[in-house]
Design a protein that fits this description.
Layout: H1 13-20, H2 25-32, E1 40-44, H3 52-57, E2 61-66, H4 69-82, E3 87-90, E4 102-107, H5 118-130, E5 132-143, H6 147-150, E6 154-162, E7 165-176, E8 181-189, E9 194-202, H7 206-215, E10 218-224, E11 238-245
Parallel strand pairs: 1-2, 1-4, 2-3, 4-5
Antiparallel strand pairs: 5-11, 6-7, 7-8, 8-9, 10-11
GO biological process, one term: methylation
InterPro entries: Methyltransf_25, SAM-dependent_MTases_sf
Protein name: Methyltransferase domain-containing protein
Length: 246
């Protein structure tokens, strides 16, 4: 699957902002881990700038990278409305070509799970490594594969409010243990019209992740169970990784 074919969930950037824009735990940790100024920061899979903007507000030179043009346009509008000078670029994170290295690269929102194959993950780490200054850090998160949750197909419904309108969503999630990919489908209806979208997400196991980080020349300084620095355990929902380039 091409990366461009796995972006249906982001078709409406404004709705995405409305649904996820209020999450701040990752922003708080990242702001706490910022290097001394002046420094460059790269925000990968930056979306609508939820993390790029607060970093820039703190006086850093920020480059936001994403593959989705619509998300980038919304990020540019938001930055412009605040007078923030942020460079937003449409690039594939596996093949970054940025003008200068950074002291910190971040990737939040479980975007790491968009890299579906071992080759994709390797290319991402190689790309990040090329764009870090010596001793620079890479902070990212990914969902922890809790087998009790993934073992059986999941089907559930919920009602969410989008644009002041109630929308009923029907979700179906099926995990393939061979590819380690969760295939998710959502059917939405507001009573007048209906739509469907899908996304595929790769799960990486804790020891697998440790080896991946190490083989690309990084030291895994911390692995938290959530963005609030909770202790990582087998039942943790996430792995939040703080890695340093060795």
């Amino acid at each position: 699957m091409k990366a461009e074919d796995n972006l249906e969930k982001y078709a409406d950037p404004a709705a995405y902002d409305e649904r996820y824009g209020g999450f701040s735990a990752d922003v708080e940790l990242i702001l706490d881990e910022l290097p001394e100024r002046p420094a460059r920061i790269i925000d990968l899979a930056c979306g609508t700038g939820r993390i790029s903007l607060p970093i820039a507000r703190n006086g850093y030179e920020v480059t936001g990278v994403d593959l989705h043009e619509g998300m980038l346009e919304r990020a540019k509008e938001k930055a412009g409305s605040e007078g923030l000078d942020i460079r937003f670029l449409r690039q594939d994170c596996r093949h970054l070509d940025l003008p200068a290295p950074a002291a910190l690269v971040v990737m939040a929102g479980n975007s790491f799970q968009h890299f579906l194959t071992n080759e994709d993950q390797d290319l991402l780490f190689e790309s990040v490594r090329r764009h870090l200054t010596p001793g620079g850090r890479f902070i990212f998160d990914t969902r922890n594969p809790v087998m009790s949750e993934l073992a059986e197909p999941d089907h559930y419904e919920e009602v969410v409010e989008t644009g002041g309108q109630a929308v009923r969503e029907e979700h179906t999630e099926t995990y393939d243990p061979v590819s380690q990919i969760l295939h998710c489908e959502t059917r939405s209806s507001d009573g007048v019209s209906s739509s469907r979208d899908a996304i595929s997400l790769r799960y990486t196991y804790p020891l697998e992740l440790e080896r991946l980080v190490r083989q690309h020349g990084f030291l895994l300084e911390h692995r938290y169970g959530d963005w609030r620095r909770g202790k990582f355990s087998p039942e943790s929902g996430q792995m939040v990784c703080v890695c340093r380039l060795m």
